[in-house]
Specification:
Elements (H helix, E strand, L loop, with lengths): L3 H13 L16 E3 L10 E13 L8 E5 L8 E5 L11 H4 L4 E11 L2 E5 L6 E3 L11 H13 L13 H13 L9 H11 L5 H24 L1
Parallel strand pairs: 1-2, 4-6
Antiparallel strand pairs: 2-3, 2-5, 3-4, 5-6, 5-7
Pfam families: PG_binding_1
Keywords: Signal
Organism: Eiseniibacteriota bacterium
Length: about 230
């Protein structure tokens, strides 16, 4: 049976990974990174939207020859769509419907709506970044990233600090963890990685578990103090 501290850590993991991600961006947050499920709160704003591609389609016979990239679910149940008109296809070395199929993407642009569905019109490949499907930091809140980094440290990996910033050292530590636990490169590795981290809690000594909890609480306190000063 897991120790009391272990059960507490597992509870914290479950709570933090189920929390809402973030509040809507202010007008000045031009490069705010959000999830595809949050785009409805950012209509009219220029942001970076990150999420998994569920389907792509190119319609050469439709007016404007559009390419549609749908996120999270297939059309018409998609949460968000990227539209690339035919006049912009020459900017892409590979047809976008082939290039971005089944990828994890981050797309930057102004969010508009069409028939009630949020979308970004893309005119250049510079607006689209293919993400590592292993674990996409933008999909987690600051506090969740603190938790993930604290777990990596407790398991003996090296990261730069105890904040929620996701630097190259953290990315390398996470990649090393995935290799150590035989997490497959096929499909989405994010659920596999999170389950492996949750299971690894039982391997962490009690004093290290307490450090993780303390680090989480201190970061939350610092965030609230910063908010109170505004």
């Amino acid at each position: 049976m897991p120790r009391p501290t272990t059960r507490l850590i597992l509870l914290v993991v479950a709570i933090f990974l189920s929390l809402p991600t973030r509040a809507p961006a202010q007008e000045s947050d031009v490069t705010e990174s959000i999830l595809t499920t949050e785009v409805g709160h950012f209509i009219g704003q220029t942001v970076t939207v990150c999420g998994p591609v569920a389907g792509t389609a190119y319609f050469s016979r439709l007016r404007g020859e559009p390419t549609f990239i749908n996120f999270d679910r297939q059309y018409p149940e998609q949460s968000f769509t990227v539209v690339i008109w035919g006049r912009s296809l020459g900017e892409f070395e590979v047809p976008p419907d082939k290039l971005y199929a089944d990828k994890q993407l981050c797309v930057t642009g102004r969010i508009e709506t069409y028939k009630g569905k949020p979308q970004i019109i893309v005119t250049s490949p510079d607006q689209i970044e293919v993400q590592d499907e292993g674990l996409v930091p933008e999909r987690f809140t600051y506090e969740e990233r603190v938790l993930l980094k604290a777990m990596l440290v407790a398991l003996g990996h090296q990261v730069d600090d105890g904040t929620g910033e996701w630097d190259s050292a953290t990315a390398q530590a996470m990649a090393d963890f995935q290799v150590e636990h035989g997490i497959s490169d096929e499909g989405s590795r994010s659920p596999q990685t999170l389950r492996a981290l949750a299971k690894a809690v039982e391997q962490v000594p009690s004093d290290e578990q307490q450090k993780i909890l303390r680090l989480l609480l201190l970061n939350l306190a610092q965030r609230e103090e910063a908010a109170a000063r505004k």
